[in-house]
Specification:
Elements: H1 3-21, H2 25-44, H3 51-69, H4 80-109
């Protein structure tokens, strides 16, 4: 099985998920990013301000975009600007949540005076 074939199957699954949930691809990236952050934090028993859940979401999203970039030529998924857009959509809220949690934790322990 080639990477292009895997990308074709993966793209079909993602499209079906969008239709089932009724959200756009951009909205799916936002929802999946936050959901993954919460699930990974829960499963690893790490706080929201820990780097592991955030980094895990980034790695998963980069894998997703790597697969997308390997779809057949002419596919709307096979372009770097769209992948950058998807990474931003996926990572914005997990990044904001992690930063907020870090700030609140530092405030709670008085680390900033």
């Amino acid at each position: 099985m080639t990477l292009e074939h895997i990308a074709e199957i993966w793209g079909g699954w993602k499209h079906q998920a969008e239709l089932f949930v009724g959200l756009s691809a951009d909205a799916m990236h936002v929802h999946v990013g936050v959901t993954l952050l919460l699930l990974i934090a829960l499963l690893t028993r790490k706080r929201m301000d820990h780097w592991l859940p955030w980094l895990s979401v980034l790695i998963i999203e980069c894998c997703n975009e790597f697969i997308d970039l390997n779809q057949a030529q002419g596919s709307i998924e096979n372009n770097w600007p769209a992948s950058q857009h998807d990474i931003l959509n996926t990572m914005f809220l997990p990044t904001a949540i992690m930063i907020y949690a870090r700030v609140k934790r530092f405030e709670a322990v008085g680390a900033w005076g």
